[in-house]
Fold this protein.
Amino acid sequence: MENRPTYGLCKAERLCGKAANGLFVQSKSGFVHPFRYVYKKRAAAEGDGAAVSVLFVVPKRNVKRAVGRNLLKRRTREAYRLAKLPIVAKAVEKGLHIDLGLIYSTKEIHNFRTISNAVEEILGKVCGRL
């Protein structure tokens, strides 16, 4: 049977709870329009469900309507889901766990292509710094 890549985004790959709060302390960050990103790397532990955990944030201050915020989070999740394989492979290879936060930081609602290109660039930069 073939070893096929998985493109899903399971619960273990989503960052929530206390780990999300810890992401913003002693982490590295950067900006790729329209996202600000923060990430923290650490040695992989036995209880980690996935090699990379990700958090998607669209602030109410930037996008007032919930419909717009949900649309942007959906587009960002899809872009991440399709582009995550290289960073996951690199994290597994180096024995690391990466917490990543993608914060949408503009007021206008961008199309999927713009979001996808930005997410791919962010993942490339983070992957290069591992």
The chain has one domain: 31-128. The beta strands are 28-32, 35-43, 52-57, 96-104. The domain at 31-128 is CATH 3.30.230.10 (Ribosomal Protein S5; domain 2).
